[in-house]
Structures are given as structure tokens and as C-alpha cells.
Amino acid sequence: MGQASQLVVIGCSTGGPAALQVLLPRFPADFPLPVLIVQHMPAGFTASLAERLNRMCPLSVKEAADGDRLQPGYAWVAPAGFQTTLVRGRDGPQLRVEALPSTSHQVYKPSLDTVLASAVDVLGAGVLAVVLTGMGRDGREGCRLVKEAGGQVVVEAATTTVVYGMPRAVAEAGFADEQVPLPDVFAAVHRRLTRSLEEHQARDGRTFQPPKNSV
Length: 215
Hints:
215 residues, alpha/beta, Rossmann fold, seven-stranded parallel sheet, two-stranded antiparallel sheet, 6 helices, globular
């Protein structure tokens, strides 16, 4: 790992809202990275999902808006009906939310592939992707880019998915570093984040204080 993790991107579709309600409350308020969630939903429903998750989670959760600046302690839900991407802002990475027309490569709004491609463009190996339950294969191409850049990928195991489509596409393509049941996903993220930060700070001669391993 040549670069410390800087962003967690979580993607899901069918069964995703319930899975997010299991996973996201495990992230502690002092989690040191921003979190971006890509959930396939009809337009108009992601705002209420963000509100529901915000009531359940130590992190502050909101629906993403154009120009939001990424910062630790927050999770953003990409709004349905739009494409969300990362861009380089004056004060660091920020979100761009646009009503772009779909192409043959952008069937979903939001698209996990689109988010991951832009995240890799801005952060390189600093992307840690998590692919949960969902139909289809959105995320497979994005995870390929994450791996080629030196980032990390965790996918949900078939045993706990509602539909083993998105995780399966990533795993069978060979882009998953780890495949674990839903209750173990946060532990896998925590372990990989801790390792990447420890390795990065060891090179700089600093001591790393890991985030709390919330349960």
C-alpha cells in the first residue's frame, strides 16, 4: 500500500437500505475518513434515507449537495436521479452533483462506477470501496480502477446479501481484497484502514492512533 486510505465509498442496490442500517451505525463519530454512499433508489427517496440513517448513526449523515466538501465525521448519500462525482476543490476534495444524461456506461443515477472512477482520479490509491447487496454489476468497473490505482475493495459475502449481484461481479472479476458477511464488514474496513494509516505514518516516522472499533 503506497498511500493511506482517504475515503470510504459504499455501494449497494437491492437490499441496500436494510444493509446500511446494519453497517453504518458501527462507524464511530471519530471515524477519520469521510464516507460516501451510493444506493440505487428512485428519485426523491435518498433524502429520507439520509435522514433515517442520520437518526441511527454516530456519524452525521446527509444527502449530498453540489459543492459539499468531504470531511471526517460525515457520511453523504448520493442523491437519486443525479450523478455524483468527486472533484478537486480549493480546500480539498468536494462533491459535484449533476443531472447528467445516462449513457450506455451510466445506467444508474447515481452510479457506483462513476463515483469510484472520479474518486480514483482525485485520490488515487486512497479509495477504500465497499460493495454490498445489489442486483446487477454496477461497481465492477469502478473497483477495477480502485485496484489498479492501489486502493482496497471489500465486498459482502453471498450468505448475507439479498441479491448477490454487485458483490459477485466484483469478486468473480478478481477485484475484491476481502469478502465477508455483513456483520463483519465494518471490522474489515477498520482493519484495512488501520493498516494503511499505520504503514503510511511509519514511513513518516509518526505514531498512529486508530479509530474506535465500534460494534
